[in-house]
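TL;DR need structure tokens for one chain.
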Amino acid sequence: MPRILACLSLFFFLVPVTYVRGPAPPTNESQYIAIEPIALNAKDPTRTRVGQLAFLGGWKITSDNGEFGGISSMAALPDNRFLMLSDNGSLVGFTLDERDHKAIRPFIAPLPDGPAKPNEFARQNWDAESFLHDPGTGQFWVGYEHQHSIWRYGSSLSRKESANFPAAIQNWPENGGAEAMLRLPDGRFLVFSESARYKKGGYQAFVFDGDASETGSKPVAFGYRPPDGYKLTDAVLLDDRSALMLHRRFTPLGGFSAILSIAQLADFKPGQVATSTPIATLRPPLKVDNMEALAIAPDADGVIVWIASDDNFSALQESLLLKFRLLMGKSTKNTEGAERHNEKAGASPGFSTFESD
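>> reply
TL;DR here they are.
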């Protein structure tokens, strides 16, 4: 019964309506999601700038539902609605009330179909890593690893429309599959591996000449080299010329850190190795975890950037949602170098005094 109710919640979530939430349903049988505001830097709550990002708000997200967690990608829909995709093939959805710090119309529901083998628990087989949404058609695409494949779902996410297991990506590492995915304005798809090495440097990626979820779409290889020591975790189109790329790193001494950078679509050429320009680094003492999900949304003043973390279903980690404004001038400068300069000059780690033109 809880899953039936969750699926019904998903249907209504996709159509904006006026909603008044009643008392929270019983623990573990409800779709209740709690939202707690957080600062970018708990030791300096006035801190609002990191590289070319201006911090606008942050929240810790929790739920007693056993399927909650493992957020690997997300879509930011109009009216502050979010669809977050979990490693285990579950969808986490809610409308964010920033003023009262509430998750309105929350739900946690499984995808209707995926690459899990029959009669096996989804979390062991549905390692969903990338997520795309077409606002024009309402369709969704999901990239899976372990059983490397690209799936397309209808606008209500109630049924699978197509699925493709491209031969070109079947030799990717089990945990290094379709970590990020882009759909270009001309309909081509870019699919990035997290850890499959490319012979010319960086990591493997493929450009598909059409819908990557269709078996007739042909892939051609290229490479992507992330910032040193980092792995790509998500990507999103910024405009018809560039994309934002999210990367993360973990070290026993330094913990988690993340780099947001900008790549030029013209650099994603077959047989070549593309790079990107870092614009912001999140590292302690800033609030950061295993940052894996990236989305953008336009507003009257420019572009809003949303970044969320994957807690790996671990009590030692957190599911975070951070909101930034992208601060871009006439040119895209490499603020990573500026951050290193500022740290040597005594500025806080992860903070840059770079001002865009």
